[in-house]
Amino acid sequence: MEAAVTLQEEISRAIESRDVDAILARFDNDADYVLIDQTRPPSEPLALHGRDAIGRSLRDIFAQDMRHEVQQFVVQGDHAAYVERCTYPDDSKVMVMSMLDLRSGRIVRQSSVQAWDESGTATPPRTQKRTFADADEVRTFEKGRVELLRMNGNDVSRAVFEPGWRWSQHVKPIAGTDLCTYTHFCYILSGTLGIRMADGSEFEAAQGETIRIAPGHDAWVVGEQTVVLLDWETSGDYAKDRD
Fold it and tell me: For residue 189, what is the domain's CATH number?
């Protein structure tokens, strides 16, 4: 736990102070960095290999006149994820969600998704640091649970699905719909999740992968390993008992 807190504090401090050298010190020499933004779709992301190449890109980013704020940061085992808010002098904002794969406390892969925030919020939110041990709400159901944190007006949840869990069997009775009607933007911390869309197409998302699931789907645990994932987009009503 102490190592996780140190990682969280060091990276957050380095980002907010725009200390590129301190950020790079956390990267492995052979690390990979992937960025998806308005000009780089998932099919053609910016892909960099090696700390030197990553450093050149980060120096370009942090040389721009903007304020960086780390709003949410979660560490679990060899994985971490955080949300960063970047504000330009004209108050336009960019939100960045980053997922980190770690080895011995060093970043071996970073995947980031960048999007412009058009909410127009003028007052910067305060920095918050929390753990799921202090979740605002925990929703339990057969073979699973969802732990919810509410931070700066945003929700982030951690879902735990045990072997044998299936949405259509264990959450459908709560939801009252034939398929899950929520969008999910997830990072898989462990296990493999199977998904079937309304059109019959199927795919799997495994540990270390980021996935966005459109409404209208079923999902289940593949194999005998518990699935643990972080979700930034699920509505606060997911798996909520309506009684």
Answer: 2.60.120.10
